[in-house]
Amino acid sequence: MKVFESRVTINRPIHEVYSFLADLNNHQQLMPENITDWVSTKDTAGFNVQNMAKLSLKAVSRVPDKEIKIIPAEKPPFDLELKWELFPVKNYTDVVFSISADLNMMLKMVASGPLQKLTDHQTQTLGSILS
């Protein structure tokens, strides 16, 4: 499993950050421009990655004010898990977003850059939205 990770510090209490991330409807705001046809509920999200694939995700685990795990709702081209981890620090929250992906050697070469960019984009955008 290859892990792509990005961190951000949010100047908000942990329960506010968790509340935003726990609802998958809010994740559309975190996506880059190449994401289209977004459909979501509190627990699921479906979308197209322009010129690549259609993905359907679901939240499978929520630990209040600590962690949210999201996995594919349908069989993806490769196994993956998205995880948001929250750490309280006084009046702000440290957030770690990671994507764990089971990539073969060819997919590593093709997908590593875009997956790292996605993790960085989502944490930076989360910081902008909640600051």
Describe the structure.
This is Carbon monoxide dehydrogenase subunit G. It comes from Mucilaginibacter gotjawali. InterPro entries: START-like_dom_sf. With 131 residues, the protein is of the alpha+beta class. It has one domain: START domain (Alpha-D-Glucose-1,6-Bisphosphate, Chain A, domain 4). The protein is 27% helix and 44% strand. It is built from 2 helices and 7 strands. It has a 7-stranded antiparallel β-sheet with strand order 1-7-6-5-4-3-2, covered by helices on one side. The longest helix has 26 residues. The termini are far apart.
Topology:
Blueprint: E1 2-10, H1 14-22, E2 35-40, E3 44-49, E4 53-63, E5 67-72, E6 80-89, E7 92-101, H2 105-130
Antiparallel strand pairs: 1-7, 2-3, 3-4, 4-5, 5-6, 6-7
Q: Would you kindly provide a brief summary of this structure?
A:
By secondary structure, this protein is an alpha+beta fold. It has 2 helices and 7 strands; from the N terminus they run βαββββββα.
Main pleated-sheet profile: 7 strands, antiparallel
Secondary structure: number of strands: 7
Task: Based on Cα principal axes, name the global outline.
Answer: globular
Proportion of strand residues: 35-45%
Strand order of the main beta sheet, please? 1-7-6-5-4-3-2
Q: What's the helix-strand series? A: EHEEEEEEH
User: Might you state the CATH topology name?
Assistant: Alpha-D-Glucose-1,6-Bisphosphate, Chain A, domain 4
Please mark out the parts with pLDDT under 50 across 5 or more consecutive residues, or reply none: none
**Mean residue pLDDT:** 94
Which CATH architecture is right? Answer: 2-Layer Sandwich
| Radius of gyration over all CA atoms, rounded | 14 Å
Distance between the termini: 33 Å
Helical percentage: 25-40%
CATH class: Alpha Beta
Tally of distinct domains = 1
- Counting helices, strands and paired strands, the structural category is alpha+beta
Spell out the CATH superfamily.
START domain
Helix count equals: 2
InterPro entries: START-like_dom_sf (IPR023393)
Protein name: Carbon monoxide dehydrogenase subunit G
